[in-house]
């Protein structure tokens, strides 16, 4: 089974190294049947369990787009990126490094949800060890432009 380490180096191929912040306990990153890699539970999770509290800096969508368009991480831009959550249609909470949260894939029948203020990742129902963790991305306040451009929603 192809898994990533819980913290730090994702791979060292072609002179690229990905750093992943371990912000969700009892999970591992594995190849996903949904898309690319996904976050998988390594122990049973009970309904209502809080998996993590997300934090970051508050910026407007416009500011985020301006920063992203400047290639802020240079040659590392492909794996050090601004991970985000939409707080409303004009405001994002961004994190400057990739976390395990970014490996939670989209599903229209998710097993996780986000609760806001603070932003927490919460189990919608009991999740078995070995089950991939999923969110319905459409539940975030995303602009129509973003939703129309996203092929995976």
Q: In total, how many domains does the architecture comprise? A: 1
* Rg over C-alpha atoms, rounded to the nearest angstrom: 15 Å
Structural class: mainly beta
From N to C, what is the helix and strand string?
EEEEEEHEEEEEEH
What do these coordinates show?
There is one protein chain. The chain is mainly beta and about 150 residues long. The chain has one domain (about 10-135): SET domain (Beta-clip-like). It has two helices and twelve strands, in the order E-E-E-E-E-E-H-E-E-E-E-E-E-H. It has helices at about 60-70, 145-150, and strands spanning about 10-15, 15-20, 25-30, 35-40, 50-55, 55-60, 85, 90-95, 105, 110-115, 120-125, 135. The chain has a three-stranded antiparallel β-sheet with strand order 5-11-10, with no helix packed on it. Strands 6-8-7 form a three-stranded antiparallel β-sheet. Strands 1-2 form a two-stranded antiparallel sheet. Strand 7 and strand 8 (about 90-95) form a beta hairpin. It is globular and about 40 Å long. The two termini are about 25 Å apart. The model is unreliable at about 1-15 (pLDDT under 50).
